[in-house]
Input
Amino acid sequence: MPTYDFTCEVCGTPGRCWRPAEHPPRFCSRECRTIGMADISLRKPKWPVSPELHEQIKDLYQKRAGMTNAPVVRKFAERIGYPDWKIKRYAQRQGWVIRRKKEPDWSAAELEILTDNAHRGLSGIQAKLKAAGFARTLSGIVQKRKRLRLPANLSGHSARGVAACFGVDVKTVIRWIGHGYLRAIKRGTERTANQGGDYWFIKDKWVRDFIVEHLAEVDLRKVDKYWFVDLLAGDKLGLGPLGASGAQGEARETERLVSAEIRRAVGF
Output
């Protein structure tokens, strides 16, 4: 490491010290260094914005309103040799980009509306919130519904899911709904007729009522027995998720208990 003879830039005191070749000494003490580095106006900015570059960025954001997306800014930054974050930050400081405010926290009333209407489509949930005097964006509803794990946590099924559990075609479930045997409601999505129409939402309670009132429509040989047991008698027996059990003896005992419970439930 070379030795330098230097004069302090602040107090003019001569000195000698060792320094790396790329960092020659400028100050004799820490106090002088603090004073000397305080005037940050002497530092040259790493990414200066000249008047010409200012006009180019202004043209990019104002003349192409609505078209200045991330790929466009990235391409412009690569062309001038600047990082794209510098261009975006400069545009924000100039007021050419609207800064989006973070949405406020969800209130208890909003969460209740979201939970009660989680089976609906996004526009349907937004309409319910608006009717109650709350304004939420679709993206905000999506994020909150994901964080609450809705509608996955709802105790209900789609028509296709009910069909799979009963071992029948989905058209059979639609026929049950059409005849009024099985209660169901629309989710309120924006699916068109060419896409198969809106989804159905069927609560567990409505499936239980259908089984009790229209048992003749159910072929017990095709039913998913573990789902069937969990639906009708799982809470009463305290069995939990029966499908997770691998012991044959326990499964046979479970079937015997559930068979008796089902007979009592449906009035046999």
Remarks:
- Residues 236-254 have pLDDT under 50 and may be disordered.
- The radius of gyration is 35 Å.
- The chain has five domains: 3-42, 51-94, 108-147, 155-223, 225-268.
